[in-house]
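SAMPLE LOG
Freezer: B-3
Tube label: C17
Construct: single chain, 197 aa
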Amino acid sequence: MEKVKLNIVGLSYSQTQSGAYALVLGEEKGKRRLPIIIGGFEAQAIAIELEKMAPSRPLTHDLFKNFAEQFDIHINEIIIYNLVEGIFFAKLICEQNGKEIELDSRTSDAIALAVRFNSPIYTYEFVLKTAGIVLEDDNYSDDNDNEELVLEEDAPKNTIETLSTEELNDQLNDAIEQEDYETASRIRDEINKRENK
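STRUCTURE (predicted):
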């Protein structure tokens, strides 16, 4: 079966499921999007890597990457290979000493590892036909070559917007130390917005 390459185009708080996030993957050469609902921990693991934050201690996916590197294991690619009753199935295509090994994985964990290993993410056409959507009002612009992380929270944004840049940097460091990466991401977005003005 022919594979379709996907890129991460968005990650936002789910408005329909409490405590869940919507990870949006987009086909590299096309307009279809593949939304996947994932848990908060996995969303956090993906977000901190995309935002290039450095946690004070390694998270589970960081530990896995460190472990794999010590034993010369590389993840060549991630494949979202099936969809059954609304659940996506994924596998890691790994290589060690020239030998290829396939490992079954939850899709959210596979993607959290893919961003750490800079591994491509693929799916099959039938998965995109079944669960893919074409966004009429495409909030995730194809003109943006950078992976865009969109975290929407119910937290009042007025508080962040009223702080000075120095106060924001202090709060960012505090949030990272407390491993509150969702708050850290919102603060980082505000700092970046101010720097780009």
